[in-house]
Amino acid sequence: MDKPVIVALDFADDFECINFLNQFPKSEKLFLKIGLEMFCQFGYPFVHNLRERGYNIFLDLKLHDIPNTVKRTCEMIAKWDVQMLTVHASGGAEMIAAAKSGLAGSKTKLLAVTQLTSLGQNELENELQIPLKSADYVAHLAKLAFDNGADGVISSALEVPMIKDATSSDFLCITPGIRPKSAQVGDQKRVATPAQARTLGSDGIVVGRPITQAQDGHQAYMNICKEWNK
Question: In the chain, how many domains are there?
Answer without folding.
Answer: 1
